[in-house]
TrEMBL record:
This is MYND-type domain-containing protein. InterPro entries: SET-MYND_domain_protein (IPR052097), SET_dom_sf (IPR046341), SMYD4_SET (IPR044421), TPR-like_helical_dom_sf (IPR011990), Znf_MYND (IPR002893). Coiled coil: none annotated. Gene3D superfamilies: 1.10.220.160, 6.10.140.2220, SET domain, Tetratricopeptide repeat domain. It comes from Iphiclides podalirius.
């Protein structure tokens, strides 16, 4: 039986699947995988492999001597490859900072100083250069630049770190003096006075310098109270969170049928603007192009971290972190295993999805990964319906919870996903009990992830084989990074095979369930010229349950690592709450959308926009709206033409009264006026007010009319832009008039 992607465009489908695994233009993996496929085609081995059950596929490949000999020859050359530390380079960057300071280019100074910090070896590693304290000196240099930029808190953090990294004792007087400047600028005069006084004790008998220090002390205004930093209030789910799925609003429920699988529907009426989902990723990876600009762990733009400067990795110079907290989470979980091979990963051409497939293992560690494998791959009988998603409707539960207490305990465990660098995350576990709880929480969330579709039965043999080759490559890297070092010798081989099979599963489910994470890049105006830039990719256990429609019911944006879904149109109870997987009817015609969805996601879309072949935005005009049938439960619509107004609904036979049509048209006119008001508020950079006006107008429109409607679609897209202003936003700094004149 042919698959949907074979019927539409098999060549394009193959290309779509291939790029989810590796690059078609960069790296060695594409050629390696194709060579393995060519070997597998000999004697029709690949055809017989395609018929093998999923659970036996990896072992079947391992039994093929020809394939394994080829792979082992390649894998034998695997070595750690990454950009390491270099004290000499760090020293050169510090000298460059001194030259740039004289020129007054402080932003350039900061970039150079951060490079000096990131390239510095760990304290004591290279005693020949800087006496082994390159890192402390680099932090000292950067603190000066940050102080000149009036980033007092960040400068203070660098000073504290410099002291921990053995800043030379001869510099202690200058250290406390500079610390006093930082506290003064940060609005803490009392601490500034203490720091100045400590500096005075260390200055010796230099009366001239002491006189200058006394002037600094005298300049302090001790009546100033310390500034209290206010954290922004986080967004919350409308209607509260579901107990069994705390990332999902109570307004929704997850249902299931044989054709569409599991998907979200409205459990109660939903209004435009309602927050329906706030989900943290099970695993997420930063795109390599952003390693130098964003935090590796939380993806925050480093330039936007006012109170701290980029923090280093102890082993490599490839990545940076926004804080010690993010760095420590990464180092104690996944990064220590991935760090030695980052350069090799780039060189292989592996995709970001392949990296996430690895991250799903490295963040969990060997013990938890083997537990996950045992529960969700080896023993497929224990399904997610019986564990996590026990409130799914439409299918009979396979197993029932033993007791009410067990249900409550399971719900509580999922409330706190681990490894999330937001204000809502739990503190890193320190006691053995807390570590055990974190382990259980991860395994519990894995139940959601490993219930997602992989379409393995629809997958061709060559595609499956390539994913096994990638999994073997990544497993080989793990072996060389000591991932299996705590495993008993007689169990290592079995553990390696299990991890390989787990990665194969990851590679399949990520192809259809991952989300691109973006930040909004904007200039001086909040909306004009703003655009989304994709910086990372993640897999969201509950977010992945939303089905696609070409006219989606929600808009998504990202708050840190969390995905947020907000309604862009009202929904009645029972209606599908749809997302959009990329092809939107406003931008792409029916044929293009069907081709994309069939080849990329392996399904045929039958949403209303596809069934009725709605025009794209360019094809629409400001024609009369489609009015809805007076019967609220009827889906019929008609064009309000006074000359040929229907007397009754052709579907449910409810009479169409002219007076009611007049009221409907007046309501639509009122909506148009509110759309214009919303546009003016956006121009004035008042997004909250614009959201209130546009949400009210869109709700009003859907009470009397139906889509498509050009102005309403534009209003919904405007809402999408307004929602995004409360997510990840980076403002591009534009040079001042004086700076422009200097450059010219």
């Amino acid at each position: 039986m042919s698959q949907i992607y074979e019927e539409v465009d098999p060549v394009y489908a193959k290309k779509c699947s291939s790029v989810t695994l590796c690059s078609n233009t960069v790296g060695f993996f594409k050629n390696l995988s194709e060579e393995i496929v060519a070997l597998a085609e000999e004697d029709d081995w690949l055809k017989s492999f395609e018929k093998v059950e999923d659970a036996e596929k990896v072992s079947t490949v391992m039994k093929n001597k020809t394939i394994m000999e080829c792979l082992m020859e390649v894998f034998s050359r695997i070595q750690p490859l990454h950009r390491g530390k270099d004290a000499k380079v760090s020293q050169e960057k510090r000298k460059a900072v001194e030259d740039s300071i004289k020129q007054g280019d402080l932003e350039k100074c900061l970039a150079l100083a951060s490079q000096a910090v990131l390239r510095s070896p760990m304290t004591g590693a290279e005693e020949v250069i800087d006496g082994g304290v390159s890192l402390a000196l680099a932090l000292w240099t950067r603190s000066e630049v940050l102080l000149r930029l009036n980033r007092h808190r960040a400068a203070l953090e660098d000073l504290k770190l410099a002291l921990k990294e053995r800043l030379p004792a001869r510099m202690r007087a200058q250290y406390y003096w500079r610390m006093g400047h930082c506290y003064k600028g940060a609005g803490e005069p009392t601490r500034a006075k203490v720091s100045y006084e400590l500096a005075g004790r260390l200055l010796g008998n230099n009366e001239k310098v002491k006189g200058q220090l006394q002037k600094d002390i005298d300049s302090l205004d001790l009546s100033i109270k310390p500034n209290c930093s206010h954290t922004k209030s986080g967004i919350t789910l409308t209607g509260g969170a579901k107990q069994s799925m705390p990332s999902l609003s109570k307004l929704l429920k997850i249902t299931e049928d044989e054709i569409k699988g599991r998907f979200a529907v409205a459990n109660e009426p939903v209004k435009t603007g309602n927050v329906l989902l706030i989900d943290s990723p099970y695993a997420a990876c930063l795109l390599p192009d952003f390693y130098g600009t964003n935090c590796l762990h939380c993806f925050k733009r480093l330039d936007d971290c006012e109170e701290c400067a980029p923090v280093w990795c102890p082993q490599c110079s490839e990545v940076a972190f926004c804080s010690l907290k993010c760095r420590d989470i990464a180092i104690t979980t996944y990064h220590s295993y991935e760090c030695p091979f980052l350069g090799l990963f780039f060189g292989s051409g592996m995709s970001i999805l392949s990296h996430i497939a690895l991250r799903m293992v490295t963040q969990a560690g060997l013990e938890a990964s083997l537990t996950i494998y045992s529960k969700h791959l080896f023993n497929k009988m224990e399904t997610v319906e019986s564990v996590t998603l026990h409130d799914i409707e439409g299918t009979q539960r396979k197993l029932k919870m033993k007791s009410r207490r067990e249900r409550l305990n399971r719900s509580k465990k999922i409330l706190y996903p681990i490894d999330d660098n937001t204000s809502k995350e739990k503190e890193i576990s320190t006691t053995s009990d807390e570590k055990q709880n974190s382990h259980e929480q991860l395994v519990f969330r894995a139940a959601q992830v490993y219930s997602l579709c992989t379409h393995s039965r629809q997958r061709k043999g060559d595609d499956y084989l390539k994913r096994i080759v990638m999994a073997m490559f990544l497993t080989e890297c793990l072996k060389r990074s000591d991932f299996f070092k705590n495993c008993e010798k007689d169990k290592i081989l079995k553990a390696e095979v299990s991890i390989c099979e787990l990665i194969v599963c990851n590679l399949q489910l990520l192809q259809f369930n991952a989300h691109e994470i973006y930040e909004t890049i904007r200039g001086q105006h909040m909306f004009t010229g703003s655009k989304p830039v994709y910086t990372a990719v993640g897999i969201y256990p509950t977010g992945a349950l939303f089905n696609h429609e070409c006219n989606p019911a929600v808009a998504r944006y990202f708050d840190g690592r969390n995905i947020v879904l907000r309604a862009t149109r009202p929904l009645a109870a029972g209606e599908i709450v749809s997302e959009n997987y990329g092809p939107h009817f406003l931008m792409r015609n029916l044929k293009e959308r069907q081709r994309c969805l069939a080849c990329r996601y392996w399904f045929k879309c039958d949403c209303v926009a596809c069934k009725e072949d709605w025009p794209t935005l360019k094809q629409m005009n400001a024609s009369a709206p489609f009015l809805r049938c007076p019967n609220i439960s009827c889906s019929w619509k008609f064009i309000a033409n006074q000359k040929s107004l229907p007397s009754r609904c052709s579907k449910c036979s409810v009479p169409i009264e002219r007076n009611l049509v007049k009221v409907y048209l007046e309501t639509v006119d009122s909506c148009l006026s509110k759309y214009e008001e919303g546009a003016r508020l956006m121009e004035a950079e008042r997004p909250m007010e614009a959201i209130d006006v546009l949400c009210e107008a869109v709700d009003m429109y859907h009470e009397v009319a139906r889509m498509p409607h050009r102005e309403t679609h534009i209003a919904q897209e405007s809402l999408r832009s307004c929602f995004a202003t409360f997510g990840n936003v980076h403002i591009v700094k534009t040079p001042s008039l004086d700076e422009t004149k200097e450059n010219n």
